């Protein structure tokens, strides 16, 4: 047990503390609030706003699409090939995608890409193809490719927790399919659904690889800005700025995850996992 | 009643296939785009298998794309090391906590799930002083050749995979009666190492396997930390290659996706076979409701 706690202290707790404390330390090692002034810069505020919008939109869209897919898969045989296939594919896309996903998009939507030519054939012009590299168009679309799979993975256990007896009971009492979803399954799944959406939100907020590989000019979202500040060798004191930005991210994520923990406790009242 | 049942069943099947088909198309298109892109002939005209032939020729890859070759080798090494450290760290701790200090269980769970709330990019910011310090000591003891090795990243990767492997191993431990098993072994004269190695571990086989598979998939897909520490691994090599040789890099991307898929697909069969199967699950739910 001791090795475990020693290890996690060195590689998890201390790094987190380094960020939190470092955000308040000046170059001379004295406590200061000046690093936080970087958080008031227009460029950071813009990136933060774009990050939040990007995460919120892809989280909600991903949650809706992912939950539909999860329900569809849950009606299949639990040991069947379909379910294994879909969950494995989603596992890959949700956890592994990253750089490869960005490549898939540049290859498909580039000037001579497969989808560009297909779209052109049905009369939709891709334009310059630059939309792919903008945060509120291309990036959003690419993010859906790991948000929907993640939703399936997170939400599937909840949908599978719906007992057929509940549906039978509703029918015995004269309820229709609509009554079942509106009065039984809906309320039971709602906490899990919102919880999963929050998880998707933090996932999109902290994603770095896909954005880095897709966006080569400018840093429209916070993770990229942190990365820039870290690898900047031109400006001094950027390390402290990186810490301040990282602290801002920790605060947002911590708020969301607290909400998630509360909802998760409520969700587990009905669903035995 | 049975007619209604059949109708619902039928409607569910239509819905299932409809949704799955649509979503599959949505997901398959970019992958198809990748395949199309990599089989394009010179100058974008016609079809050619040149890219794939190059990639299949390992000798040529090693000489023509040294970064890629190095990245793949490093990633494999990282995966093996991460799995080893993760198992060494988690399995004894979690077993011990379950047997001796159940009070600490919540704390261990909290620590293990914490990385989910600390974004990897934030971890990088906090880890850089740790690594500076670690590299300093390593240089002092073993010299530069060892202290500069990318393989040390696996120590950070263990933290990244903690939540996933914790869940897998926890599910495994839950499905066996650790206390009875270890007490039986102890009363027959086994020491703790024997209990761990010959009793607990074999019973956790499928949980350990799925934790390891997940770890391998995650490590092979890791980009953020390696890139920001300016180290080379599979994903970083792919990213760098994307700037110079698009076709090869897209092909490598496709191969890596397919490979990760195969790992997870294989895992879905391992996870449900053997002792993690339906019988144990049924026993477990009965025990929990009792």
TrEMBL record, chain B:
Ranges for domain ABC transmembrane type-1: 72-267
Compartment annotation: Cell inner membrane; Cell membrane
Keyword terms, alphabetized: Cell inner membrane, Cell membrane, Membrane, Transmembrane, Transmembrane helix, Transport
Signal peptide: none
Any one Gene Ontology cellular component term annotated for this protein: plasma membrane
GO biological process: transmembrane transport
Membrane topology value: Multi-pass membrane protein
Regions crossing the membrane: 15-35, 72-95, 107-131, 151-169, 206-228, 248-274
CDD domains associated with the record: TM_PBP2
InterPro entries: MetI-like, MetI-like_sf
Annotated Pfam families: BPD_transp_1 (PF00528)
Similarity annotation: Belongs to the binding-protein-dependent transport system permease family.
Protein name (record): ABC transporter permease
């Amino acid at each position: 047990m001791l090795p475990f706690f020693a290890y996690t202290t060195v590689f998890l707790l201390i790094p987190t503390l380094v960020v939190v404390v470092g955000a308040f330390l000046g170059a001379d090692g004295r406590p200061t609030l000046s690093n936080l002034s970087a958080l008031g810069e227009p460029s950071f505020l813009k990136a933060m706003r774009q990050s939040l919008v990007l995460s919120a939109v892809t989280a909600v869209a991903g949650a809706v699409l992912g939950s539909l897919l999860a329900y569809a898969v849950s009606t299949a045989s639990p040991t069947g090939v379909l379910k294994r296939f879909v969950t494995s594919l989603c596992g890959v896309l949700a956890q592994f995608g990253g750089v490869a996903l960005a490549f898939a998009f540049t290859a498909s939507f580039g000037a001579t890409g497969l989808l560009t030519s297909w779209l052109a054939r049905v009369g939709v012009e891709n334009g310059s193809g630059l939309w792919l590299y903008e945060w509120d168009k291309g990036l959003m679309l690419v993010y859906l490719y790991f948000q929907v799979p993640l939703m399936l993975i997170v939400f599937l256990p909840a949908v599978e927790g719906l007992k057929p007896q509940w549906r039978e009971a509703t029918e015995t009492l004269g309820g229709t399919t609509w009554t079942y979803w509106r009065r039984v399954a809906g309320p039971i799944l709602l906490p899990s659904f919102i919880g999963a959406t929050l998880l998707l939100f933090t996932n999109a907020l902290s994603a770095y690889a896909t954005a880095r590989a897709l966006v080569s000019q400018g840093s429209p979202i916070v993770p990229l800005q942190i990365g820039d500040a870290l690898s900047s060798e031109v400006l001094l004191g950027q390390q402290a700025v990186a810490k301040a930005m990282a602290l801002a991210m920790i605060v947002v994520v911590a708020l969301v995850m607290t909400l998630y923990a509360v909802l998760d406790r409520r969700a587990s009242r009905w669903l035995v996992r | 009643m049975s007619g209604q049942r059949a109708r619902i069943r039928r409607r569910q099947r239509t819905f299932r296939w409809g949704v799955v088909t649509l979503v599959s198309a949505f997901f398959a298109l970019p992958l198809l785009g990748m395949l199309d892109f990599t089989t394009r002939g010179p100058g974008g005209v016609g079809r050619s298998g040149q890219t794939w032939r190059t990639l299949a020729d390992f000798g040529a890859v090693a000489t023509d794309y040294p970064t890629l070759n190095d990245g793949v080798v490093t990633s494999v090494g990282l995966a093996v090391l991460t799995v080893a450290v993760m198992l060494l760290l988690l399995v004894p701790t979690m077993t011990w906590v379950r047997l001796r200090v159940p009070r600490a269980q919540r704390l261990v769970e909290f620590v293990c799930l914490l990385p989910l709330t600390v974004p990897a990019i934030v971890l990088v910011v906090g880890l850089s002083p740790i690594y500076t310090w670690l590299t300093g000591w390593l240089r002092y003891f073993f010299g530069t050749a060892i202290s500069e090795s990318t393989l040390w990243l696996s120590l950070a990767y263990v933290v990244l995979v903690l939540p996933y492997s914790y869940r897998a191993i926890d599910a495994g431990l839950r499905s066996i009666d650790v206390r009875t098993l270890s007490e039986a072994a102890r009363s027959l004269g086994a020491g703790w190492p024997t209990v761990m190695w010959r009793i607990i571990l074999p019973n956790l086989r499928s949980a350990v396997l799925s934790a390891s598979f997940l770890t391998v998939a995650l490590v092979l897909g890791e980009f953020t930390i390696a890139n920001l520490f300016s180290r080379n691994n599979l994903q970083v090599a792919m990213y760098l290659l994307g700037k110079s040789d698009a076709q090869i890099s897209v092909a490598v991307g496709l191969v890596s996706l397919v490979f990760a898929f195969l790992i997870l697909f294989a895992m879905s069969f391992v996870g449900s076979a053997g002792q993690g199967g339906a019988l144990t699950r049924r026993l477990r739910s009965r025990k929990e409701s009792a």
